[in-house]
C-alpha cells in the first residue's frame, strides 16, 4: 500500500499494476461479516474481466497500460497514449470493457436457458453485468462513456473544446448523481443513498481535477502531434485548412486544431488576400515559444 496515494497494491501482471481502492477493501470486509462475500467476489471478477478487455485492446494498439484501479463501482484503466494515435483507437479501447459485460450477460442467459446454471444465479449475473454496462456508459470521464463522448465530440469540435466539453459534462452528470443520492433525504422519504453519493463525489472530484489539467493535456497534445503529422504527410493525406487574420493570436489558432486532421493555416487580410500559409508545425513552435500574433510567424 502506498500511504501517499492511499491505494492497496495487489499484483503486477505483464507490467500492469493492479490496485484496490481502500473503500472497496472496506466493503469486502463488511461483505465477509454480513455473509455477502459471494456476491461481492462475483462483482469483483466481472470488473476484473471488464478491465482485462480494456488492457487487451490497448496492448493490441500499442498503448501502454500503466495501472488498473479497482473501485467500488468498477475500475479505471490508466493509459499512456501512443503519440499521434487516431482517436478511434481510444473509442475501441473504451468499448472493449463494456463488450466483456455484454458477452458475459449473454453467456449467463444461455447457460440459464439451457438448464446448466441455477436460474437465480443466472439472473444475478445478467443483472450485474447489465448494471456495470449501463453505469460505465454514462458520459462521465474517466468512465467508458466519458471517453466515447470525447471521441464523438472530437469529430466535430476542436481538441481544446472537446476537453472542456467532456470535463464540464462529467461534472454536471456527477452533480446530478449526487442530487439523486440526496433526494430521498431532501424529500423526507428515506435515507441518503450512501453508495451512489460516494461514487458521485468521486467522479465530481475526478472531473474537477481533469478540468484543471486541460492546459497540460492540451500542451501534451501539441507536443505529440509532430509524429502523427509526419505520417499523414508521408501518406499524402488531405490537409484541413484554418483561416485567420494576421492579428489572430497564435494560442487561439492552435486551439482550433482537430485531433485527427493535419492543418494548414491560411493567413488572410481583411480584404480577402492570402498573405501566407503556415504548416501546423510552425504554429505549434510559435505557441511553445510565447504569445504572439500569427503574422509574426511569417517573418
From TrEMBL:
<dbReference type="InterPro" id="IPR008915">
    <property type="entry name" value="Peptidase_M50"/>
</dbReference>
<protein>
    <submittedName>
        <fullName>Zn-dependent protease</fullName>
    </submittedName>
</protein>
<feature type="domain" description="Peptidase M50">
    <location>
        <begin position="125"/>
        <end position="177"/>
    </location>
</feature>
<feature type="domain" description="Peptidase M50">
    <location>
        <begin position="40"/>
        <end position="112"/>
    </location>
</feature>
<keyword id="KW-0472">Membrane</keyword>
<dbReference type="GO" id="GO:0006508">
    <property type="term" value="P:proteolysis"/>
</dbReference>
<keyword id="KW-0645">Protease</keyword>
<comment type="similarity">
    <text>Belongs to the peptidase M50B family.</text>
</comment>
<keyword id="KW-0812">Transmembrane</keyword>
<dbReference type="InterPro" id="IPR046342">
    <property type="entry name" value="CBS_dom_sf"/>
</dbReference>
<feature type="transmembrane region" description="Helical">
    <location>
        <begin position="192"/>
        <end position="210"/>
    </location>
</feature>
<keyword id="KW-0482">Metalloprotease</keyword>
<feature type="transmembrane region" description="Helical">
    <location>
        <begin position="124"/>
        <end position="144"/>
    </location>
</feature>
<dbReference type="Pfam" id="PF02163">
    <property type="entry name" value="Peptidase_M50"/>
</dbReference>
<keyword id="KW-0862">Zinc</keyword>
<dbReference type="GO" id="GO:0008237">
    <property type="term" value="F:metallopeptidase activity"/>
</dbReference>
<feature type="transmembrane region" description="Helical">
    <location>
        <begin position="20"/>
        <end position="49"/>
    </location>
</feature>
<dbReference type="GO" id="GO:0046872">
    <property type="term" value="F:metal ion binding"/>
</dbReference>
<dbReference type="GO" id="GO:0016020">
    <property type="term" value="C:membrane"/>
</dbReference>
<keyword id="KW-0479">Metal-binding</keyword>
<keyword id="KW-0378">Hydrolase</keyword>
<keyword id="KW-1133">Transmembrane helix</keyword>
<feature type="transmembrane region" description="Helical">
    <location>
        <begin position="165"/>
        <end position="186"/>
    </location>
</feature>
Amino acid at each position: 500500500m502506498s500511504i501517499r496515494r492511499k491505494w492497496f497494491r495487489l499484483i503486477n501482471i505483464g507490467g500492469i499494476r493492479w490496485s484496490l481502492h481502500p473503500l472497496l477493501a472496506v466493503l469486502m470486509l463488511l461483505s465477509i461479516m454480513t455473509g455477502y462475500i459471494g456476491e461481492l467476489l462475483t462483482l469483483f471478477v466481472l470488473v476484473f474481466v471488464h478491465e482485462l478487455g480494456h488492457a487487451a485492446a490497448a496492448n493490441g494498439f500499442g498503448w501502454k497500460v500503466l495501472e488498473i484501479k479497482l473501485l467500488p463501482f468498477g475500475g479505471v484503466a490508466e493509459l499512456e497514449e501512443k503519440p499521434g494515435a487516431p482517436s478511434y483507437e481510444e473509442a475501441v479501447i473504451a468499448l472493449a470493457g463494456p463488450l466483456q459485460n455484454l458477452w458475459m450477460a449473454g453467456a449467463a442467459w444461455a447457460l440459464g436457458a439451457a438448464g446448466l446454471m441455477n436460474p437465480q444465479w443466472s439472473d444475478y449475473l445478467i443483472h450485474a453485468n447489465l448494471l456495470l454496462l449501463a453505469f460505465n456508459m454514462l458520459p462521465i470521464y474517466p468512465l467508458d462513456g466519458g471517453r466515447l463522448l470525447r471521441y464523438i465530440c472530437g469529430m466535430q469540435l476542436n481538441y481544446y473544446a472537446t476537453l472542456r466539453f467532456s470535463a464540464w459534462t462529467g461534472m454536471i452528470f456527477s452533480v446530478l448523481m449526487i442530487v439523486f443520492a440526496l433526494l430521498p433525504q431532501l424529500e423526507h422519504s428515506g435515507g441518503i443513498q450512501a453508495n451512489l453519493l460516494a461514487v458521485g463525489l468521486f467522479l465530481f472530484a475526478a472531473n474537477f481535477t481533469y478540468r484543471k489539467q486541460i492546459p497540460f493535456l492540451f500542451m501534451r497534445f501539441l507536443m505529440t502531434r509532430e509524429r502523427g503529422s509526419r505520417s499523414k504527410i508521408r501518406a499524402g493525406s488531405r490537409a484541413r485548412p484554418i483561416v485567420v487574420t494576421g492579428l489572430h493570436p497564435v494560442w487561439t489558432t492552435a486551439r482550433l486544431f482537430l485531433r485527427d486532421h493535419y492543418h494548414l493555416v491560411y493567413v488572410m487580410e481583411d480584404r480577402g488576400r492570402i498573405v501566407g500559409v503556415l504548416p501546423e508545425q510552425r504554429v505549434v513552435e510559435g505557441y511553445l515559444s510565447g504569445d504572439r500574433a500569427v503574422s509574426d510567424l511569417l517573418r
